[in-house]
Design a protein that fits this description.
about 325 residues, mainly alpha, globular
């Protein structure tokens, strides 16, 4: 979901379509994850699907954002491409909530609305990662910071908990060398990755322990106390979250296609989809009861089909041109 840094090229001007295809999958999961949230506890399939989505979709997006941030843009470009759009979209959300949906809100610029925390976090990661990377053992230290922030109760203030929780994925993406995938991207690696992913899916539908937990353990926003976990359980669960997310990130790299597909262009338009799906979601969530009334499997299929359509629709040029214009106002 990044429009300010070009994707690293393999050779010449050749794009790495693996990451375009990966972003297509992830933006689809972002949309599905949001739209099924109000009713995922009313249908067992949606419930486990939500678990599978939150386990890796944002860590993977942030990992890819880190990969595309190997060359950090200037502070001026970051201000124009991230900070100014953040304020613009915050104001648009305020207008939507106040004058259309009659939802109580305010100009809480220090507390991002809906999914805008990502813009604030991306600015922070890009700003501080060059400094953090100079510290020996920065990856381990970033994981420790992500674990320790779970003991605090910052809430949504400046997205601090999320910034620290997800920072290891951004750093890992910056350090990642895509050429290292070559020796694993073979038939054996492909089948092995599919087997593990299939095993993870079976685990979700058969395991009972994760039903005792809150899906918010992967959100990074909530403290251990908020999720009714003691200190020891909270730390162990968060370590488990890191391990699962990193494993899934790399497994999907082994099974997704590396060549250009008919849908690959969507990977270049994820910012428009990310921004505008939030407005659509807010209208349906707070302006009607449709998202909270999904129960039957047929209704689930209709909702998922709508998510697929919405991703395609929001990738059209008017939405892309709008977000690009906002990112280049100055």
């Amino acid at each position: 979901m990044d429009t300010t840094v070009k994707a690293p090229a393999v050779s010449g001007d050749q794009r790495e379509y693996l990451f375009d295809n990966y972003k297509v999958l992830l933006i689809l999961l972002v949309v599905i994850g949001h739209f099924i949230e109000p009713s995922n506890d009313q249908n067992s399939f949606l419930y486990e699907l939500k678990w599978g989505i939150v386990a890796f979709h944002m860590p993977a997006f942030i990992f890819i954002s880190g990969y595309f941030s190997k060359r950090i843009p200037s502070l001026k470009k970051m201000l124009c491409g991230l900070v100014i759009p953040y304020f613009v979209y915050e104001i648009l959300y305020y207008l939507l909530y106040t004058f259309v949906l009659d939802k109580e809100t305010g100009f809480y610029f220090a507390r991002p609305k809906f999914s805008l925390w990502y813009l604030m976090a991306l600015f922070a990661w890009r700003l501080f990662s060059p400094l953090v990377e100079k510290i020996p053992g920065c990856m381990i230290l970033s994981v420790i910071a992500g674990i320790l922030i779970g003991f605090t109760d910052f809430g949504n203030f400046l997205s601090i908990p999320r910034i620290l929780f997800f920072f290891p994925f951004f750093l890992a993406g910056k350090k990642f060398d895509s050429s290292s995938l070559a020796r694993f991207r073979n038939r054996k690696g492909y089948l092995g990755a599919l087997t593990i992913l299939g095993g993870f899916a079976v685990f979700l539908f058969t395991d009972n322990y994760h039903h005792r937990l809150d899906q918010k353990i992967f959100y990074g926003r909530y403290s251990y106390a908020d999720m009714d976990m003691g200190s020891v359980e909270g730390v162990l669960v968060r370590i488990g979250c890191y391990l699962i997310s990193f494993l899934l990130i790399y497994l999907f790299m082994l099974v997704l296609p590396t060549e250009k597909k008919s849908y690959s262009y969507l990977g270049e338009r994820t910012m428009a989809i990310y921004i505008f799906h939030g407005f659509v979601y807010s209208c349906l969530r707070y302006g009607s009861s449709i998202l909270t009334s999904v129960e039957s499997n047929l209704e689930c299929l209709y909702l998922l089909a709508f998510c697929f359509f919405l991703v395609w629709f929001l990738s059209r040029k008017p939405f892309v041109l709008f977000t690009n214009k906002i990112a280049h106002l100055f």
